[in-house]
Write a structure and sequence with these properties.
Radius of gyration of chain A: 26 Å
Order of helices and strands of chain A: HHEHEHEHHHHEHEHEEEHEHHHHHHH
Radius of gyration of chain B: 33 Å
Strand order of the largest sheet of chain B: 5-4-3-6-7-8
Oligomer: heterodimer
Number of strands of chain B: 8
Largest sheet of chain A: 5 strands, parallel
Structural class of chain A: alpha/beta
Strand order of the largest sheet of chain A: 2-5-8-1-9
Number of helices of chain B: 19
Distance between the termini of chain A: 29 Å
Order of helices and strands of chain B: HHHHHHHHHHHEHEEHEEHHHEHEHEH
Number of helices of chain A: 18
Distance between the termini of chain B: 48 Å
Largest sheet of chain B: 6 strands, mixed
Largest interface: A-B, 28 and 31 residues
Strand content of chain B: 5-15%
Chain lengths: 330, 448
């Protein structure tokens, strides 16, 4: 638990409190997710979230920051990301500019020196001036360490970065400190709540995994997906919501390249609402299927069965079967 | 309870889930934080801390159910106290009475507690193989006072009165009930601690067995094993193709990077070279005895598509044909059967196969290609077409020849292996899955 009274993590007193809190900002959590967040706070460990795209991995971090009213600091990973862009950089331009401006002054100061040796010893006094926190450009990782009340640090798509960067993260993630050779070690007073996400583009190293709690977020079940869509889409009728979610759930069961995620369900719900659809019907579905499915081959694969799937989704008895027929969490 | 957790971690480790000491400490802290009361919560939390991938989570969940199903009994044992256990000097009559009490209806709690204590005494958590189940069950019965029960039973059997007979029958029932319960407990312990170990042992045996001697019943195991090997190799080799630094200044990029600081080169950028992506052409002899090896080689290579983006397979016995389509569209076993049926006929001719390859697929070879040839090099005294082979070897990055025949047989009879050998970067004898893994590993290492 947080020792310092001033931290922003205080609302995280129990797992129920986390679920309820996330609910207030429109993130529908399940016990596994809340447990992971609770443990991450209690054990001061980062959470590594894996799962298909669009199931709310990144959104969890955003919602946490919103609920706790803490800054969300985001580091998007990509191939070739290095320390200079993730941790800190010297403001070369500013240093150069200041040297130019202070040139006269420097000349004056150094003018008094008789020998080369004298000027050198005078000059060495200035070095610290230019390599001081004033000229330090904080990048996301350092920035997160400097927050007084704590922060939510989101390291997005860590699997896209290089292995070297992954190794470099280890110091930051296990000790919550950063070493700048010219200044020294900067330690976070209040460690950030760290969330890493991965889409499994490549296998992550064991060392990194060992330092994190592991959470897998899968596709939601019928119940949860309905609640999510209701929270995200204003004014959707219960009938349409129920039918739409049932349809999406049955699409996920078919053998397609990219199964629609929650984000796509929400988009689709908005689309149908715009078209003033009161209930799901085959023509509407056919016209708007490209919102739900993003590959031509997937649309072609689902198309023949649309009629049957719509009938099932709008039928009276499908609900119970679908709700229990699809596994929620991994 | 800490012992419970550490034993649980032992069970996880024996099932190939790697749990470090740090994670074990985390698990202890977690349990201290959330308490033991809520079983579902405990399962979620421990999964979060101990399992680091989807498959590990499945193993964790299975073991959690097995392991903590006995936990309530364990705590009951502690609360019940150890006073009712068998003592060395206990009178046989008392012991028999105590044990028959335990097996009565309504005493399940006490029986479970006694069983847990006996399990502890017998060191049940050390169980490794299924053959030990009976042994541990016996030790547990003995720890509960089975010997005294036996003595009492013998006594009753010698009584020869109706009363004594009834007594003997009752004691036999008691003993059977105790043994059954102990066996069940031992079985569960084996599932928790030993089953994974046995599997591992069998896998090791299978991996070092001659591929041609694998029986049909072992095929499923081999397939899983190949999948494991493929995963291992893919993880090793599909890591990002990093660039190497050449030590030469990249003037263009350096100037661009430092434009903001007046062109003063604060940031120096070196010229880099991209590494090649593996490109593999497999040419398989699918005649007779070699066919079995082809099956495993193709299974292995096609299971690691993520590490080998550019893979082409050809099969021949007399004429050579591309089998990419068959392998990609059909289920693997059916695909192999189809290949063997369609291509596996006719007498082997390496010369004919090479000239077919030259005619139709030569343009697939470039300087990044590794050609893997799997075959015994027995060409029925036909022209080996060394000229073509030399040409391929010259154009490709390297040629690797995998031969299922032992080295001693090379060059005997119609084998033309020694004549091909000078053009191959490597020619090796593959007999087991381990050999195959080593060969493929070497091929891929050449690209990194």
């Amino acid at each position: 638990m947080a020792k310092d009274k001033k931290t922003g993590y205080e609302p995280m007193t129990s797992i129920e409190a986390i679920t309820a809190g996330l609910d207030t900002v429109g993130y529908i959590s399940v016990s596994q997710i809340s447990t992971a967040v609770f443990l991450a706070h209690g054990l001061r460990k980062p959470i590594l979230i894996e799962g298909p795209a669009g199931v709310g991995k990144t959104d969890l971090a955003a919602s946490l920051s919103k609920w706790l009213n803490l800054p969300l600091i985001r580091l998007q990973c990509y191939e070739g990301l290095d320390e200079g862009k993730a941790l800190y950089e010297w403001k070369y331009g500013k240093q150069l500019l200041y040297t130019q401006i202070l040139k006269e002054k420097l000349n004056e100061l150094l003018g008094g020196a008789e020998t080369l040796k004298d000027s050198l010893s005078k000059l060495s006094g200035f070095e610290d001036l230019f390599f001081s926190p004033q000229f330090l450009e904080a990048r996301p990782l350092l920035h997160a360490m400097q927050q007084d009340r704590g922060s939510v640090l989101l390291i997005d798509e860590i699997d896209k970065s290089d292995e070297a960067f992954e190794a470099f993260l280890l110091e930051v993630l296990s000790d919550y400190q950063v070493t700048v050779p010219e200044i020294g070690t900067i330690r976070a007073n209040v460690p950030p709540l760290v969330i890493l996400t991965s889409n499994n583009v490549r296998e992550l190293g064991d060392a990194l995994k060992r330092r994190c709690l592991h959470l897998h977020i899968g596709f939601p079940d019928h119940e949860r997906e309905q609640r999510i869509v209701r929270a995200r889409v204003d004014g959707i009728s219960d009938t349409l919501l129920n039918q739409l979610v049932r349809f999406v759930q049955s699409v996920r069961e078919t053998d397609i390249k990219k199964r629609p995620s929650i984000a796509e369900t929400v988009d689709w719900a908005r689309t149908l609402l715009l078209l003033h659809a009161a209930t799901l019907d085959e023509a509407f579905v056919r016209d708007t299927l490209n919102v739900l499915l993003k590959h031509e081959s997937d649309i072609a694969a689902v198309s023949p069965a649309i009629g049957k799937m719509v009938r099932e989704a709008t039928g009276p008895d499908g609900r119970g079967r679908l709700a229990s027929g699809y596994p929620d969490m991994g | 309870m800490e012992k419970q957790i550490s034993n649980f971690i032992r069970a996880l480790r024996s099932a190939d889930v790697r749990v470090s000491t740090g994670e074990a400490l985390d698990a202890a802290r977690t349990v201290a934080m959330i308490g033991y009361d809520d079983r579902a919560l405990m399962k979620d939390s421990l999964a979060c801390v101990l399992a680091k991938s989807e498959s590990e989570k499945q193993v964790h969940d299975r073991l959690f159910e097995l392991y903590f199903s006995s936990a309530p009994a364990g705590s009951a044992a502690q609360s019940a106290g150890a006073g009712s256990d068998s003592e060395p000097g206990e009178d046989p009559k008392d012991a028999a009475e105590r044990l028959s009490q335990l097996t009565q209806q309504g005493n399940e709690q006490a029986l479970a507690a006694a069983i847990e204590r006996a399990a502890e005494q017998a060191g049940l958590n050390d169980i490794r193989f299924s053959t030990q189940v009976a042994y541990f069950a016996q030790s547990m019965v003995r720890a509960m006072g089975g010997e005294q029960l036996q003595a009492r039973l013998l006594e009753a059997l010698q009584g020869r009165t109706p009363d004594a007979d009834a007594e003997a029958q009752r004691l036999i029932d008691v003993r059977r009930a105790l043994t059954m319960t102990a066996r069940e407990r031992a079985e569960r312990a084996f599932q928790t601690f030993g089953a994974a170990e046995t599997e591992k042992f069998r896998d090791e045996v299978a991996a070092t067995k001659r591929l041609s001697a694998i029986e049909a019943s072992d095929m499923a195991r081999m397939k899983q094993l190949v999948a494991k090997v493929a995963k291992r190799l893919a993880v090793k080799h599909s890591r990002r193709r990093k660039r190497t630094q050449l030590g030469l200044l990249d003037v263009r990029r350096t100037m661009r990077a430092n434009a903001g600081v007046d062109g003063i080169p604060f940031n120096v950028i070196w010229r880099q070279k991209k590494k090649d992506r593996p490109k593999i052409i497999v040419i398989c002899d699918v005649s007779g005895s070699v066919a079995l090896y082809v099956r495993f080689l193709l299974l292995l290579l096609f299971s690691m598509k993520e590490a080998i983006p550019d893979l082409h397979a050809f099969a021949f016995s007399y004429r050579l044909k591309s089998v990419d389509d068959i392998l990609e569209t059909m289920e693997f076993d059916a695909a192999i059967r189809k290949i063997l049926r369609e291509i596996g006929l006719g007498s082997t001719s390496y010369g004919q196969a090479f000239s077919d390859f030259k005619m139709e697929h030569e343009n697939k070879i470039d300087r990044r290609t590794t050609i893997i040839i799997l075959g015994d090099g027995r060409s029925n005294y036909g022209d080996p077409r060394l000229d073509l082979f030399r040409d391929f070897a010259g154009r490709a990055k390297r040629v690797i020849w995998l031969n299922p025949e032992g080295r001693a047989l090379w060059g005997t009879g119609d084998s033309v292996i020694p004549r091909y050998e000078p053009f191959c970067a490597q020619m090796s004898h593959v007999a087991t899955l381990k050999d195959l893994e080593k060969a493929i590993d070497e091929v891929l290492t050449a690209y990194s």
